[in-house]
Amino acid sequence: MRRPVSKLTTRQQQILDLIQASVHEVGYPPTRAEIAARLGFRSANAAEDHLQALARKGVIELTPGASRGIRIVAPQRQRAAAAGTMWNDTARQLALPGAEQLCLPLVGRVAAGQPILAQEHVEHSVAVDPAVFASRPDYLLKVRGMSMRDAGILDGDLLAVKSCQTADNGQIVVARLGDDVTVKRLSIRGRHIELLAANPDFAPIRVDPEQPFAIEGVAVGLLRGALQ
After folding, report:
1. Which of these is catalytic: 57, 147, 162, 163?
2. Is 184 a catalytic residue?
3. What are the two backbone dihedrals, phi and then psi, of residue 77, each rounded to the nearest 5 degrees?
4. Is CATH 3.40.50.300 the classification given to domain 10-95?
5. CATH number at 102-227
6. What is the pLDDT of residues 137-156, one digit of tens each?
C-alpha cells in the first residue's frame, strides 16, 4: 500500500501557496529573498531551508543556479516520491508532455530598430529544462543594467521570454519603445501605458500615444550563474 505524500508543516504550506500564487499572478516563482520578505524570515537562508524540505518531500524541484528555479511537481510524481518508487524518464514525459531539453537562442545587445531574434543578436544557444519555466519560452535575453533589481532581475541575468504581442497589466515584459528594447513592468490605466522599473533610481516611462511602441514578449523565468 502506498503512503500518502508527507504532510506539510504550516510554514511549508504557506511557502507552497506563495509559489503557486506567484506563478499564477506573474508567470514565475518567487526568489528566496522574496519568500523571506513575504513571510517575515530573517534571511533568504531560512527560505532555502524550507524549500529544501519541500523538495525532500517530493512536492517541488529546485534547479541549481536559477534564482527562480522552483517547480511544483506533478501529483503523479509526488505520489511516487512518497511511495519511495522510482520516477523514470518515460513516466515523466508521459505526465509532463514537452519536458524534453530545450535549446534556446541567447540574445545579447539588440541593435536599434532590428528584430530581437535577428541572427547578429544571437550570441549562442543554451540548453535548459523547460519544466523550470511557468510557460515555454522562445528565447533568453541577457539583462543589461539594474532597473529591475527589486524584482530579482539583475544585470547579466538571462531572462526567459515567451514571444507575444500583448500582455496583461502588471506583467514583466520585453517592450520596444522607438528604437530601444527594454525590460519593465507593464502598467495600463485606461488608455495610458507606462513601463515601470523595479528600482526607485529609475523613473517610470510613459508611452506617448504617437510614439512607436510594441510588446515583444513576456517574462516566464530567469536563469543566473551556473546555467549561463
Report:
1. 147
2. yes
3. -75, -35
4. no
5. 2.10.109.10
6. 989 998 988 999 888 888 88
